Amino acid sequence: MLAIVIPYYKLTFFEATLQSLASQTDKRFKVYIGDDASPENPIDILGNYKGKFDFIYHRFETNLGGVSLTQHWERCITLSYDEEWLMILGDDDVLGDNVVEEFYKQYPVFYSNVNVVRFSSKLIDYSLGKISEVFTHPVWESSSEFFQRKLKEKTRSSLSEYVFSKSSYLKCKFCDYPLAWHSDDMAWIEFSQDKQIYSINEAQMQIGFSNLSISGRNDNLDSKYSASLAFYKNILKKYSQIFSKKERLEILMKYEILIKQSRKLYREEWLFLISHYFRNFSIIPFAKLCRRILIAYR
Fold first, then answer.
1. 157: closest CA among 186, 130, 129, 179?
2. Where are the chain's structural domains?
């Protein structure tokens, strides 16, 4: 069975999320709502949905998301029982009516072959009242292929549009980056465990975007920057083997450019780059790196 876990904090768009759950054409799921000591009590709204789908609500007495959002996700997951598959649904995100139906319809195709399933998606800009085009994916795709598409800004991704096996989650857990920025990206590399990602394009998730969401705010750019640096460095240190040499060089360049967007590189960062360029030696990229180092230390 499928567990849908909602780390709740914001009431503003929550009813749309609940309505989308009530509208599912297949009710074979259970919802677990973990309230992160929110000042906005959802009890009255939840009362309107009793009997419309199966859910458990639990209020945590301390706020954890402000310290570590991934740890709040994880304590919300502990509310679930013996479900084999998990979805973490944002409290401002919406399921298309047939998301659960298509999950079970296509289950025989993917269940023994993957640990990660994703749906097509749209972005809802609540501030402007706009909905984006539909983002679809190859039905079968490796995590490295997906990473490259996202690196080149040919696609997008958010936590809510994924379903993952509980066994893969328990083995890996989430990387604890600031604001959980890129924590989902790292999860799909780790949770997939060398298996492909399976895409269901026949059902859509609608991902909320506003000045209340982490992705839509501009007062957290320093934390996002720190998270991005840590993410790309971890990719290079732990998972470079899943990429080709050409792809590794592209990731190295991305990491260097990312640092330079805010400041000059530190000595240890140049040394890190030198070591990785040497391991993936190609004369022109290595020569260009040496030139950039000379310019930096003039």
1. 186
2. 2-209, 221-296
Average pLDDT of span 167-174: 96
Q: Can you tell me the distance from the alpha carbon of 158 to that of 151, in angstroms, rounded to the nearest whole number?
A: 14
Q: What is the structure's pLDDT at 126?
A: 82
Chain segment 193-220, per-residue pLDDT in tens: 889 999 999 999 999 877 767 776 777 7
141 Cα distance to chain centroid: 16
Q: How far apart are CA 165 and CA 157, in angstroms?
A: 18
pTM over 0.85: yes
What pLDDT sits at residue 125? 86
- CA atoms of 60 and 42, how far apart (whole Å): 13
The pLDDT > 70 percentage for the chain reads 98
Domain 2-209 has CATH 3.90.550.10: yes
Cα–Cα distance for residue pair 168/195, rounded to 1 Å: 11
Query: If you average pLDDT over every residue of the chain, what do you get?
Result: 94
CA 152 to chain centre: 17
